[in-house]
């Protein structure tokens, strides 16, 4: 029965060549979210799409290709390797590399037009040497640490930095940026305003030292929606593009017009009846209160279905919610389908995302697991194929 059901599934082109556990990526929703953000910021502000961490697990190449066609202005990644992946895939737009580069990667940045963020003079020095050797003037962005306390030139050390940077005759500071620590938190409103003020002051100092800055940018998703005064020349949304907002935007932001991009799905692999008093899974953490119908799903915590959802999560199957029972294991999960009429092997199961009228927001999943939605989508492993869905694709 299993084999008949699985074989019949191959008639559906979406799953034809993949295991029956997949992350469906709604590229039309991604494009819709970009348009929503554009509406919020107006025509003069550019958009850098944060596609680091494989586009928060959504598939960087897939997402970047569509966003490029939709007219996004820049891409942002964390590391040079991620930028190279985009270049190999034919992405031609400017790419900003948030975390800069490691010694030895200067050539790759220059050759592939990857714009690094500079946080230290010694990195600028190394890049300047490499750029001079090529006879190029190379653009970089400089990050100011206005309160995040991670990367960047401290806001109170900007003067020395801006003065010293003058000696790098083969580099040009194209952009100046900072990053907010708590733009989503109403209690930190004062702190965010202070970050903005510190940034403005830093930009003044750079200009006073003769640097002509073409692009000033500060705003992540939360600031894009909650602090219009921080839009400057460009905003850098990540989460909002992927429709992750319930736990990422400032609560004063009215429910944004954003659609979830990822739906994480699998299929019923096996059905079995169990009797009262029998237990399920590792640690025997679930004991059947009566006769039950259990479905085995070919998904586990290695795929990114978090173990913290054991006995707490729920899924959608045939238009009904079905609870997770017992511990989620590495490759398998059990659900209670006693109340799901007509359930069959091969039925599609939605772990999060939408299924017709039903939805399980990934933010809710994150809340149950005690984490942030970003960590949940980032956690979908490489073992899970990303399947694009779009009215545009044939
Ligand atoms: C990840 C990141 C962003 C995007 O943040 P979201 O909260 O996802 O909008 C913007 N800027 C920098 C520097 C980042 O690292």
Please outline the helices and strands.
Blueprint: H1 2-9, E1 21-26, H2 27-41, E2 46-50, H3 52-56, H4 60-69, E3 74-77, H5 80-88, E4 95-97, H6 106-111, E5 114-118, H7 121-133, E6 138-145, E7 153-154, H8 158-165, E8 171-177, H9 189-208, E9 215-219, H10 221-226, E10 234-235, E11 262-267, E12 270-274, E13 279-280, E14 286-287, E15 292-297, E16 314-317, E17 320-323, E18 333-336, E19 348-355, E20 358-360, H11 362-369, H12 373-378, E21 386-389
Helix pairs in contact: 2-4
The structure holds pyridoxal-5'-phosphate (PLP).
Pyridoxal-5'-phosphate (PLP) binds next to loops.
In short:
With about 400 residues, the protein is α/β, with parallel strands linked by helices.
Uncertain parts: 4-8
CATH class of the largest domain: Alpha Beta
Distance between the termini: 31 Å
Q: What is the number of strand segments?
A: 21
Largest sheet: 8 strands, parallel, barrel
What is the rounded Rg?
A: 24 Å
Given the helix and strand composition, which structural class is it? Answer: alpha/beta
Average pLDDT works out at: 94
Q: Strands of the biggest beta sheet: in what spatial order?
A: 2-3-4-5-6-8-9-10
CATH topology-level name of the largest domain: TIM Barrel
Total domain count: 2
Helical fraction equals: 25-40%
Total count of helical runs of at least 4 residues: 12
Small molecules held by this entry: pyridoxal-5'-phosphate
CATH architecture of the largest domain: Alpha-Beta Barrel
- How much of the sequence lies in strands comes to 15-25%
Silhouette: elongated
CATH homologous superfamily label of the largest domain: Alanine racemase
Function: Catalyzes the interconversion of L-alanine and D-alanine. May also act on other amino acids.
Family: Belongs to the alanine racemase family.
Modified residues (N6-(pyridoxal phosphate)lysine): 52
Keywords: Isomerase, Pyridoxal phosphate
């Amino acid at each position: 029965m299993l084999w008949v059901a699985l074989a019949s599934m191959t008639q559906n082109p979406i799953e034809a060549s993949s295991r029956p556990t997949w992350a469906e990526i709604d590229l039309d929703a991604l494009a819709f979210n970009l348009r929503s953000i554009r509406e919020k910021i107006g025509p003069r502000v550019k958009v850098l799409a944060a596609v680091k961490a494989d586009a928060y697990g959504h598939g960087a190449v897939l997402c970047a290709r569509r966003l490029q066609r939709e007219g996004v202005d820049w891409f942002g990644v964390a590391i040079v390797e991620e930028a190279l992946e985009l270049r190999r895939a034919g992405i031609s737009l400017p790419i900003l590399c948030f975390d800069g580069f490691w010694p030895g990667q200067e050539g790759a940045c220059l050759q592939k037009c990857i714009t690094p963020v500079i946080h230290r003079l010694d990195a600028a020095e190394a890049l300047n040497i490499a750029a001079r050797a090529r006879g190029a003037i190379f653009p970089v962005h400089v990050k100011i640490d206005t309160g995040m306390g991670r990367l960047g030139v401290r806001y109170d050390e900007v003067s020395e930095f801006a003065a010293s940077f003058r000696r790098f005759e083969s580099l040009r500071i194209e952009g100046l940026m900072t990053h907010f620590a708590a733009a989503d938190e109403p209690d930190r409103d004062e702190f965010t305003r202070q970050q903005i003020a510190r940034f403005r002051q830093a930009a003044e100092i750079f200009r006073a030292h003769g640097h002509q800055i073409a692009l000033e940018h500060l705003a992540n998703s939360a600031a894009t929606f909650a602090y219009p005064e921080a839009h400057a020349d460009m905003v850098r949304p990540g989460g909002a593009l992927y429709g992750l907002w319930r736990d990422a935007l400032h609560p004063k932001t009215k429910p944004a017009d954003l659609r979830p991009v990822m739906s994480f799905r699998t299929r019923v692999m096996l059905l079995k009846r169990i009797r009262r008093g029998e237990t399920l899974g590792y640690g025997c953490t679930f004991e059947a209160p009566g006769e039950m119908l259990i479905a085995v799903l070919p998904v586990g915590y290695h795929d990114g279905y978090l173990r913290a959802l054991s006995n707490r999560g729920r899924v959608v199957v045939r238009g009904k919610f079905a609870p997770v029972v017992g511990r989620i294991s590495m490759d398998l999960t059990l659900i209670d389908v006693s109340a799901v009429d007509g359930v069959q092997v091969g039925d599609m199961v939605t772990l999060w995302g939408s299924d017709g009228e039903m939805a399980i927001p990934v933010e809710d999943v994150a809340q149950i697991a005690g984490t942030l939605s970003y960590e949940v989508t980032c956690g979908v492993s490489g073992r899970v194929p990303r399947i694009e869905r779009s009215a545009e694709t044939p």
